[in-house]
Amino acid sequence: MDTQLLRRYARLIAVTGGGLRPGQDVVIRAGLDQPDFTLMLAEECYAAGAARVEVEWEYPPLQKLDYEYLGAEALGEVRAWQLAKLRYRADTLPVMLYLESADPDALAGIDQLKRAEAMRLRWAVTKPISDEMENRYQWCIAAVPGEAWARKVFPGLAPADAVERLWEAILRCSRAYEGDPAENWARHNAFLAERCAKLNALGLVRLEYRSANGTELSVGLIPEALFLGGAETNPVNGAAYNPNIPSEEVYVTPRAGEAEGIVYATRPLSSRGVLIEDFWIRFENGRAVDCGARKNEEALRALIAMDEGSAMLGECALVPYMSPIRESGLMFFNTLFDENAACHLALGRGYTSNIRDYGKYTLEELRALGVNDSMVHEDFMIGSADLSVTGVTASGERIPIFTGGGWAL
């Protein structure tokens, strides 16, 4: 891939994605297969005024080895130095940049119950600090093409050709292939803000989903919740940042415990190194009470049973069926991309930042309003060419939001 294109993409991630301001520290998390682009991203961070850039490397085969040889208690242990590092980051609030490149099936075959128990043990220790950091730092998730991932998306190509094709797809979907990426994102953010303004003016209290595939779901909304999309603002320093590159969604935090019906996924879910395919979830009294999947059903059931809040919804996101990612014709097998090709829901933690004037509430008060709490937040795609979404107001007025998979406003 052309070096100048990659450098512009790196700059986009650092400045538009992370919202990096001079004097801020940066932490980059990347796979071992991405040393060159990680170096380029670090250079762009320093060029933008970063005080210090640290890189944390991840390697899924080593994680899989741990799951094979260690018990849940050892996997879930948070050592003193790890807790001290998290504490330091809560105090200094560095910009967090995450580069996704891993094989979607990297952790296939691990013991899902052991993984769930290890996550619960870690979360019991780290949750107080994570809660303290919520909404107070800038972060961005973006993607680079790992070879195993590229071969899954383009199985008929030689590895080098598959990586090149995936690079092009990532850059195009991220609005970084043609024109000025920063200007492209300024226009895109303005469009998403206009969509949000229209939705927020409606006073919706419920969303109803219908599709010919069997989806029939009603989800309650929090009256104080706002639809958001695109750029966000760090209330600590006023920096604007884009948490996801790419992003096509307009999303809202639903009220925990208010969901009824059944929903069918329309794309696979890549969840922590496992690919869950052809699945459905049924909700009663706000909770997922049953589910099924053609592949990796045990991973889906483990996800739903992770903690008290993992069986409830934490996000409703609206994405036109004919989004740029859908129009690429590709199945990315990666939630960052596939969630932006279709309307989606999320199991688990809800976003407190979606609540109007959220800064005036304590975290406990935000939970009391109906923002779901969980150690997980897993998006799964439900959008289809015939999906309809109807908004219902407090007075009972029914307003078409989506018809035929696209905006009806």
TrEMBL record:
This is Aminopeptidase. The keyword Hydrolase applies. GO terms for biological process: proteolysis. Keywords: Aminopeptidase, Hydrolase, Metal-binding, Metalloprotease, Protease. It comes from the Bacteria. Its cofactor is Mg(2+); Zn(2+); Co(2+). PANTHER family: AMINOPEPTIDASE, AMINOPEPTIDASE AMPS. Belongs to the peptidase M29 family. InterPro entries: M29_Exopeptidase (IPR052170), M29_N-terminal (IPR035097), Peptidase_M29 (IPR000787). Transmembrane segments: none annotated. It holds the Pfam family Peptidase_M29.
